[in-house]
Amino acid sequence: MAVADAENPLRGETTCGSLLQQLQQIWDEVGESDDERDKMLLQIDQECLDVYKRKVDQAAKSRAHLLQALADAKSELSSLVLALGEKNVVVPDKSTGTIKEQLAAIAPILEQLWELKEERIKEFADVQSQIQKICGEIAGNSKLTEQAGAPTVDEADLSLKKLDEFHSQLQELQKEKSDRLHKVLDFVSTVHDLCSVLGMDFFSVIIEVHPSLNDSIGVQSKSISNETLSKLAKTVVDLKEDKMKRLQKLQELAAQLFDLWNLMDTSSEERSLFDHVTCNISASVDEVTIPGALALDLIEQAEVEVERLDQLKASRMKEIAFKRQDELEEIYAHAHIETDPEAAREKIMALIESGNVEPSELVADLDNQIVKAKEEAGSRKEILDKVEKWMSACEEESWLEDYNRDENRYSSSRGAHINLKRAEKARILVNKIPALVDTLVAKTRAWEEDRQMSFVYDGVPLLAMLDEYAMLRQDREEEKRRMRDQKKFHEQLSSDQEPVFGSRPSPNRPLGPKKVVGPRANGGAANGTPNRRLSLNAHQGSSNGARSTPKGRRESTGQVAHVNHVAISKEDAASHVSGTDPIPASP
Questions:
Q1: Angle at the Cα of 62 from the Cα atoms of 56 and 63, rounded to 5 degrees
Q2: How large is the average pLDDT for residues 457-475?
Q3: 300 vs 75, which has greater pLDDT?
Q4: What is the pLDDT of residues 378-434, one digit of tens each?
Q5: Which of 101, 219, 334, 562 could be joined to 538 by an S-S link, Cβ 3.0–4.6 Å?
Q6: What is the tens place of the pLDDT at every residue in 290-313?
Q7: What is the pTM of this model?
Q8: Distances (CA, A) of 566 to 475, 523, 524, 563
Q9: Is 377:334 a contact under the CB 8 Å cutoff?
Q10: Which ranges are annotated Basic and acidic residues under compositional bias (predicted)?
Q11: CA-to-CA distance for 559 and 465, rounded, in angstroms?
């Protein structure tokens, strides 16, 4: 039964004792000796010992691996906590529980930290890639940055503080990118406006700076590098300089057009064809914003027109020069300055026919003469105005004397009241003549001292005219006194002879026809006052009395009276004796 159990070990539980019992039975049957049996048992013990040792070694190794794993887990846990900067992670106590329990306690924490680390790495990689991209755009090597791939993340420091630093850096770079992008867009807009004004192709100009600046490319894809900004700034400066040069050129051409138009009396219709050129003649650089206002073809068009007008001016030089001479003579005539127009015209004709002078130089010389003539006329204006007042006062004085000789001045005839009012005003004006003459003399002398030359009025020194007038006025006053004395004498003589010879006509009433109130037929006043032209030389009265102006614009004046001819004639003296009444205080 025992043998059967040994032969069929599956029937019962196999143990070391049952196996040893089976071995004893087998030895008994075989007849093994005790030595052999001891030797076999010793060998079995040794093999069992080896098995135990091997198992112990395996268990020790397993424990060592677990301890190493625990140490590695704890180390990794510390590294992760340090790298992630997570101070709130609860690390289990080292002495709590078995090794496997400690590992089991650390494993969830490690897994959570690993997941957090992966998330942090992605965040760092994303931020750093954006930083790298913007830096590449600023540096101008964005393509190289794309080829370099994703940036390397430093896993030793994945803390939130470090991530915030990267975010701050990214925000600064994004702000700088935005600022640069605005600068680029401003530059592009300026280039567009300048190209529009200059009539240039905007796309060809802007693509030369950088291809990404084309309008077909999105705003965020435009180059914002230092090189692009520098090129854009240089392009804007070059275009502004070109704009300034073109504007100056166009303004010079416009000024030339105006000069030529004014020179040749060009019609307003013909001038209006170049309004787009002349509209900017006084504009500043910033004020010119109309598209194509400074295009090259427009400038060339103006140059062609100036050249055409220059050629036309050369063919019309004689007419233009004489027109300028007419203007010059008219200025001198208004300023009462004597000139020799015939000699001036002959000189102009000689210069034109000789061809030794450029037409523009001749016109410029005449323009300079006109400017100087206007300046001289301006310096004489104040004195000439007073001369006009003086002459007008002298005319009123002459009229008043003729009026006072009229016996019917107080009659109720038609227009008598008008003459009475005029006489009142004339007396007021005549009383102002001495002061006006004194002022005129003072201003004339000051003018002559300032310019070291004589003030000549229509070829006659004005001071000489004033001196002559003063002498004539004095002679006239003496003549009046003589007439009054003579009248008193005749009245006294008549009163003495009347009882003897009877009454006779009064010498105060002329028997002849009445004198007409008005200016003298010979151009001078009855009282010897100067006319609009007054000469001190006899030859001037005969040769220059009817002085004319170019093209008949200046009116001929009356013949100028010589000093010896201004004296009262015999007929006038007789009229004074026979028809002059005492001047009443009021009409």
A1: 90
A2: 88
A3: 300
A4: 988 899 998 998 988 899 888 888 888 877 777 767 777 888 888 888 888 888 888
A5: 562
A6: 999 999 999 999 999 999 888 887
A7: 0.50
A8: 11, 11, 8, 5
A9: yes
A10: 477-493
A11: 15
Which residues is 460 bridged to in the sheet?
457
Cα 293 to Cα 286: distance, rounded to the nearest angstrom: 12
Task: List CB contacts of 465: < 8 A, sequence separation 6 or more.
Answer: 457, 530, 534, 536
- 197-232: b (≥16 Cβ within 10 Å) or e: bbbbebeebbeebbebbeeeeeeeebbbbeebbebb
Helix (H, G, I), strand (E, B) or coil at 456: strand
Comparing 162-171, 348-357, 507-516, the range with the smallest average pLDDT is: 507-516
Q: Provide the CB-side half-sphere exposure for 208 (13 A, CA).
A: 10
User: Of residues 460 and 545, which shows the higher confidence score?
Assistant: 460
Instruction: Please check whether residue 469 is in contact with residue 434, taking contact to mean a CB–CB distance below 8 angstroms.
Output: no
Q: How far is CA 460 from the centre of its chain?
A: 53
DSSP secondary structure, 131-195, as one string? HHHHHHHHHT-HHHHHHH-SPPP-TT---HHHHHHHHHHHHHHHHHHHHHHHHHHHHHHHHHHHH
Q: Which residues contact 345 (CB under 8 A, 6 or more apart)?
A: 322, 325
Q: Which residue has the tokens 């990214």?
A: 170
Instruction: Please report the pLDDT score of residue 223 as a whole number.
Output: 83
The alpha carbon of residue 285 and the mean position of all alpha carbons in its chain are separated, in whole angstroms, by 5
Alpha helical stretches, state H, 406-415: none
d(CA 367, CA 512): 60
Find, among 420, 397, 394, 398, the residue nearest to 408 by Cα.
420
What is the distance between the alpha carbons of residues 445 and 412, in angstroms, rounded to a whole number? Answer: 48
Start-to-end CA span in the chain (Å): 194
